[in-house]
Design goal:
Layout: E1 8-9, E2 28-29, H1 36-47, H2 50-59
Length: 65
């Protein structure tokens, strides 16, 4: 394991269609030159496909990988 690593943390809450706020989320990035907005855009793109990967993993019996 290597030593300490610099990160950027974005403290955020999301609002649903009814105006209710989600719990606090703390996305992290080791790319410290990115703005908070860019980090959130990257997370948005990543998480839209995560449910599919989770479903494929569990349906294919790959829970341990």
């Amino acid at each position: 394991m290597s030593g300490p690593c610099s990160t950027t943390t974005v403290w955020v809450q999301f609002e649903d269609e009814q105006g209710r706020l989600s719990g606090t989320k703390l996305p992290l990035s080791t790319l410290t030159e990115l703005s908070a907005e860019t980090i959130l855009q990257y997370y948005e793109k990543r998480w839209c496909c995560e449910p599919m990967f989770n479903q494929l993993k569990h349906a294919g019996g790959l829970q341990e990988t």
